[in-house]
Each structure stands twice: as structure tokens, then as C-alpha cells.
Design goal:
InterPro entries: Cro/C1-type_HTH, HTH_LacI, Lambda_DNA-bd_dom_sf, Peripla_BP/Lac1_sug-bd_dom, Peripla_BP_I. The chain is an alpha/beta fold. Strands 2-1-3-4-5-11 form a six-stranded parallel β-sheet, sandwiched between helices. It is built from 13 helices and twelve strands. Helix content is 45%, strand content 16%. The structure holds alpha-D-ribofuranose. Alpha-D-ribofuranose binds next to strand 9.
């Protein structure tokens, strides 16, 4: 099979001219264009997707779009992506979306203009992903699964098992009045964790009790007040993530509750803050660094024309610290 360089030589033009004729990306002198098309026809040259991508002057940029860089889960994820990208000769361009579809689409357009080699995205918007159809780069979704669309792969944790582990741990620590701070149910990670909580409640015959909550520290402060008002006898709290766990701890201690003696708290994620904070937060750890590196490896492998795994699920792990206390 002739290469793009051999076609250029036979047609007496540059490889870039051949690429322009193939991709129609710029005007080419008609006489030259006819020469190139004649040689393509005679040699049976077929541009492969990889050559096409390379002739798009791939920028070696991997775009990353996350909802909230203030949440250490996402900044730690971005750090892992950047390190893996750098190790492989790529650069990372980090974009913050605040879960705003317009911002997500604006950043995707920018990455298209920059000829990004791939996009790693955390989004809960089907609409945004549907709009990816006409872009030229592979998309890997991280952390949040959406209905079947255009991503080439998803990398996430086993959030369902994480919900079960958190609930079981509070039961094993003697909690009899557990309340779950239910993360945003339009997001698969929160939905799966709550399903895990529900199934353990059924298994142990305990009442489901919950407060709708989000994933941010500020929302956690507000929802902690709502929780203690609605459930004054609570003795175990499953926070939607570590940032919320920290905000619940702050609210309850300001009200004079002793943690973990009176109320026990477990978070989710195992962000670095969860062990820097005093007391150190008991949590369900997601392998944030592994998730970031895997998503980056998928983009690079895909660009190199290798096969990739579409579904990538990592185990989670209980990290017992100071906001829970086993009895006995
Ligand atoms: O802390 C941010 C949350 O959003 C994490 O729990 C992560 O799983 C994502 O869903």
C-alpha cells in the first residue's frame, strides 16, 4: 500500500498538499489536485485514520473538562492525567465547567480548534456528549456513566460496592440510626452509591433515611443543618463525598456533638484533605490516580491505533480513620 509520502513524490507535490487534497482542508491548484488524484487512483492509496489524524498536525494536547476544580477529587484527577500525559510526550489542557453545558461545549470547540488528540471528561450531560459527534478526537468519560453515546470508553470506580461498604462499616461500628446524604441522583456515581446503601438497609432490616445533598462543601454545610433537624437522634452519617463529610463534621462540632463518640461520619473519595484534616476522615477510597492514568493511557493507545477496553471499573476500599469507631 503506497504511503502518503510516496503519493506526494509521484505527484511531484508535498505531503501536506496530498493531505489538503484528501481532507479538503484548503484550496489546491486544480492542476496539482488532478495530479494527486490520478496518483491516488493508480496506487490505490487509502489514508488511514491514524495518518489522517497525524496530518491534522495533532497538537499532542489532551483536553480535560471537569465540573469543579475546587473539589480536590477533580484536581487530584487532573494531576494524575497531566503526569501520565507528560510521560508520553503529551500536554494537558484543563477546563472547568461548573456542570454548565454551554461551558462544556465552548471548551470542546476550543479543543477542536487546537486539534486536541483526545478529551477526558467528567460530565452528567447527555446533551454535551451528543454534540461530540462531529469532533475529530476520542472521548473518554471518567467517573460518571451516561446512556449509550459517543464516548470510546468509561473509567470509574465501583460506586455501588462503595455505598455498601460505607453502610456496613457504620453498622459494624454500632450505629443504629443511620442517615445517608444522597448525592445528586442525576449523576451515576451518586445513584450507584445510594443503591448500595439501600441494599444494605434491606439486608440488615434497617430503615432507609436520607437527605438530598450535592457534592460541594458549601452544600454540605446547609444539608448538615437540615439533617440534624430532621433526624436529631442520628448516630451515623454517610456523606456523599469527603468534602461533604468535612462540612458535616464542622457543623456538628460547632453544635457541640462529639465525633465519633456521639455521631459517626464516613466520606467517599479519599482526597488528600481527608487525611490532612483533623480528625482524619474515615472514607471509601477511590483510586483517583489510577483512574486518571488509565483514562490517559486509553487516549494514547487509541491514537496509536491499538484496541482499548471500553468499560474500566476500579475497586474501592474502606479507609478507617478517626470519624468512626468500632465498638468493643
Ligand atoms: O467529590 C466529587 C464527586 O464527584 C466524587 O465522589 C466523584 O466520584 C464524582 O462523582
Amino acid at each position: 500500500m503506497a504511503s502518503i509520502r510516496e503519493v506526494a513524490k509521484l505527484a511531484g507535490v508535498s505531503p501536506a498538499t496530498v493531505s489538503r487534497v484528501i481532507n479538503g482542508t484548503a484550496n489546491v491548484d486544480d492542476e496539482k489536485k488532478q495530479r494527486v488524484l490520478k496518483v491516488i487512483n493508480e496506487t490505490g492509496f487509502r489514508p488511514n485514520e491514524l495518518a489522517r489524524a497525524l496530518f491534522k498536525q495533532s497538537s499532542k494536547i489532551i483536553g480535560v473538562i471537569v465540573p469543579n476544580i475546587e473539589n480536590p477529587f477533580f484536581s487530584e484527577l487532573a494531576k494524575a492525567i497531566e503526569e501520565e500525559a507528560y510521560e508520553n510526550g503529551y500536554k494537558m489542557l484543563l477546563c472547568n465547567s461548573n456542570n454548565n453545558e454551554e461551558k462544556e461545549l465552548m471548551n470542546i470547540h476550543m479543543l477542536n480548534q487546537l486539534k486536541a488528540d483526545g478529551l477526558i471528561m467528567v460530565t452528567d450531560s447527555n446533551n454535551t456528549i451528543k454534540n461530540l459527534e462531529d469532533n475529530g478526537f476520542p472521548v473518554v468519560l471518567v467517573d460518571r456513566k451516561l446512556s449509550k453515546i459517543n464516548e470510546i470508553a468509561i473509567v470509574e470506580s465501583d460506586n455501588y460496592s462503595g455505598g455498601k461498604i460505607a453502610t456496613k462499616h457504620l453498622i459494624e461500628c454500632g450505629c443504629k440510626n443511620i442517615v445517608c446524604m444522597k448525592g445528586p441522583q442525576n449523576i451515576s456515581s451518586a445513584k450507584q452509591r445510594y443503591l448500595g446503601y439501600q441494599d444494605i438497609c434491606k439486608e440488615y432490616g434497617i430503615k432507609e433515611q436520607y437527605i438530598e445533598c450535592g457534592y460541594s462543601y458549601d452544600i454540605g454545610l446547609i444539608k448538615a443543618e437540615e439533617l440534624i433537624t430532621k433526624y436529631p437522634d442520628v448516630d451515623g452519617i454517610i456523606a456523599s463525598n469527603d468534602m461533604v463529610a468535612i462540612s458535616v463534621y464542622k457543623t456538628l462540632t460547632q453544635k457541640g456533638y462529639n465525633i465519633p463518640e456521639y455521631i459517626q461520619i464516613i466520606g467517599f473519595d479519599n482526597i488528600k484533605f481527608s487525611c490532612l484534616f483533623t480528625p482524619e476522615i474515615t472514607t471509601v477510597a477511590q483510586p483517583i490516580t489510577k483512574i486518571g492514568k488509565k483514562a490517559t493511557q486509553i487516549i494514547i493507545q487509541y491514537r496509536d491505533g491499538h484496541n482499548i477496553e471500553r468499560e474500566n471499573i476500579f475497586d474501592v476500599e474502606l479507609i478507617e480513620r478517626q470519624t468512626t469507631k468500632r465498638k468493643g
